Structures are given as C-alpha cells and as structure tokens.
DNA sequence: AAAAATCTGTTGCAAATACAACAATTTTAC
DNA sequence: GTAAAATTGTTGTATTTGCAACAGATTTTT
C-alpha cells in the first residue's frame, strides 16, 4: 500500500478500500521491462503506482528513445497527461511493480456523494502540480545559457533539495549530460574547470558546492 | 467573461457568479507590461486569466530574460505550479488584462456542498493537464542540440498544430530567441542559413517548411 | 508628426561547445 | 571469474554560438 504522504493521503484504509471498489478500480502486477498498457480510447484512465518504478518513454519515428518521466511509488500516469497524436508513448516497468487503474470520469462522478473521492481528486491535483514543478525545473535548467551555468544550477538545486551544500549524484555523468542536453565531453571539461576553480568538490559523486 | 470552453466550462453564468462570490474571489485589471503579483505565502492562490495575455518570465541574476510560459484567456497560473530554483519569476501582462484570483483551499472546501465547485476543480485539473503537455513540448524543443534543430523543431511543431506546412509566427524574433533560449543574432544567422538552404520560406513571418 | 523606443538584419571576433577518438576504469552479464 | 559492455577522463580540432556593435526599419509614445 502506498504511504500516507502519497496519492492516498488523508483517506482511511477502510474508506479507501470502499472507494476503490466503488470506482471499479483494477490492480495489476508487472515484471521488469514489461510494458504497462493504460490507454483506453475515449476513457481517461489514471494509473497509480502502488509499488515499484517505471519510466514513461517516447519512441519517435527514428526509434530514438527519450525518457519523458520517471514514475515511483505513489506517482500517477495517464493518457490525460500526454499528447496522443504523434509518436508512440509507453510506460515501461523498470522494476517489478504494482499498478492500480481508476477512471477519472468515474472519480469525478463520485465526488458529489463521496467526500473521499474529493480528497482523492485533490491528491491527484497535487500530484499533477508536482509534475508541473518538476518539468519547470527541467525547463529552467535547460534555458540557462552555458554548460557551466547548467551544472551549477543543477548542483544548487540538488543541494537545496537535500537541505545541504552537498548531495549524492545519482545519475551517471553520461545520463547527466543527456538530462542537461549537453555534450558529455564538454561537460566533463567544464566539471574539471569548476573543480579547478574550487567552486565544487566532487568526491566519488558526492558533490559539494563551495560558493555563497 | 471567459468562453465556455475554458476554465468555466459547464458552469451556468448565474451559478458561477455565486460560486466566485462564495469563494471570495477578487478581480483585478492590469495594463500592458504591468507585473501581476500573485504569490501570497502560505496560501494557494490561483489566478484565472479572464481576458488578455501574459507571460510567465524568469530574470536570472545576469538579467537575462526567458519566457517560461504563455498565458492566454481562460488559462490559469499559480505559485502552486512553480518553485523557482534561485532566480526571479514574474507574471507580466503582454496586453491589457483582467485576472480573477481564487484560493484553492477554499474551492476544495466548497466541493463538499457545491456541485459547481467540483466542476471548477475538474476544469482546473484539465487545465493543469494541458500545461503538462505544453511543458513537455517545450522540453523537447530545448533538448535538441543546435539552433538549427531548435528552429526546425519549433517550426515543424507550429506547422503541425496548424495542420499545414505553414503558420504565422506570432512572436517577435527577439521573443522567439528568448523562448528557445538562444542568442538572437546567432538565431538570425541560422534563420538566414535555413532560407539559403531553401528549407524554409519566410514571407512576412508566415513561415513555410519545405521539407519532407 | 516628430521623437523615442524597439525590433530586424548584419558582421567580425572571441569564447564556448560539439565532435571524434582513445585509454583507463568500473559495472554488468554470462 | 572472465568477457563484454558501459562509463569516465582526457585532448586536439572544427564548428557553433555568444557578444558587441551598428544601421535601417518598424512600432509606440507623446
């Protein structure tokens, strides 16, 4: 069961069970690398990650893969959140995982008579809001005008999230370069410059910022 | 009043008036270039664009401007949707505009007793969902690796939205450069290259793509 | 209708970045 | 436990991009 801070926050176990039953929700298990089907045309299906991790990925016409979103326990995904027209989008399990599906329209109907449905809708709203903030962060990083600034912004953000001047980089440098949309070797060079200028310290991917 | 397709969809004029009154909403007028203040700490304020246009912009410490989001009639903005990394974020009116402010938490409370509040919450949800899709598009543009590709991607997207090979650029070139987070003069140079290479035609900001 | 401000189009040059290529190290797979 | 694959670290060089600066065109203000 997803912890109380997530999508089921402020709903009592018993009431939740009833609500999910009333919504005719279904729960499925997936193994690593399995594709999670969720798009049912005409219906607004929302998937709730009960446990495990998955990626929302796009395969464009060249077959190039891009990770659009990373989904963890308590996170949600839906065809409501992505453009349906063009390229192929799939949710692919990166670990064993458990997913509950509900229909958004059913939830909406239940709001009239069931207070817990309102709470769930609110939790969904907050989750989408969180997604927006995450995307915004990404945009802010991508719109800084140099590799040096991208790195510094990213490091500052991570340190801030960690309530510290340090944090552990959980990306490989190769992935970080992809995330920041910059050339890896150019990034490595700039990383070296930052270290030489003593703006950061990097001990085994524990990065510490020495400014301000 | 915002048209029925927007944030007030499916709410009768009379009921809407009552709802907004119950929510103790306030409405303000702004003139072009005016900054719209909306962040009130501790409260979740949502601004609804009744009419006019505005941009959500960032000024970084160097004074460089980047357009983060474009707001049109029927769109919403809120400090719930952004969490700035370090730099300054503001909503700036690009035309004369009218904005109604409501408190999210008040709306939520009203959902228990007022069906129209549920409808409004649903409309807000759908709007946020639309924002998610838009930001995703932006990220796709920003992650392309050169000015040439950024321009081509942007042009292709706009043309596609227009169901055509052409579209009218509604940005000034100065703004487009800010939107794509690139240097204006470098962009102008690349724009010239694209024209010289006959990949695009640009007649008075009506841009036509000549590929594929 | 004149003045001021902004936008467009251009260029030379310096600086930043991407590309390519490779060896060394680490991680993953069998 | 070894082979294969991926990541890291580095460098020289070509290319792209940003910066600065300007003149002409267009738009806005007064």
Question: Care to describe what's here?
Answer:
Two copies of one chain form a homodimer. Chain A is of the alpha+beta class. Chain A has two domains: 13-135, Jelly Rolls (Sandwich), CATH 2.60.120.10; 144-209, Arc Repressor Mutant, subunit A (Orthogonal Bundle). The first copy, chain A, has six helices and eleven strands. Chain A has helices at 13-22, 104-110, 115-143, 147-161, 173-180, 184-196, and strands spanning 26-30, 35-36, 45-51, 54-59, 65-71, 76-78, 88-93, 97-103, 166-168, 200-203, 206-209. In chain A, the strands form three sheets. Chain A has a four-stranded antiparallel sheet. In chain A, strands 2-7-4-5 form a four-stranded antiparallel sheet, with no helix packed on it. Chain A has a three-stranded antiparallel sheet with strand order 9-11-10, with helices on one face. In chain A, a hairpin with a 2-residue loop joins strand 10 and strand 11 (206-209). The longest helix of chain A has 29 residues, at 115-143. The N and C termini of chain A lie far apart (42 Å). The model of chain A has no long low-confidence stretch (mean pLDDT 86). The interface between A and B is large, with 38 and 40 residues. The structure holds a DNA duplex (30 and 30 nucleotides).
Give a short synopsis of this structure.
2 copies of one chain form a homodimer. Chain A has 212 residues and is of the alpha+beta class. Chain A has 2 domains: 123 residues, Jelly Rolls (Sandwich), CATH 2.60.120; 66 residues, Winged helix-like DNA-binding domain superfamily/Winged helix DNA-binding domain (Arc Repressor Mutant, subunit A, Orthogonal Bundle), CATH 1.10.10.10.
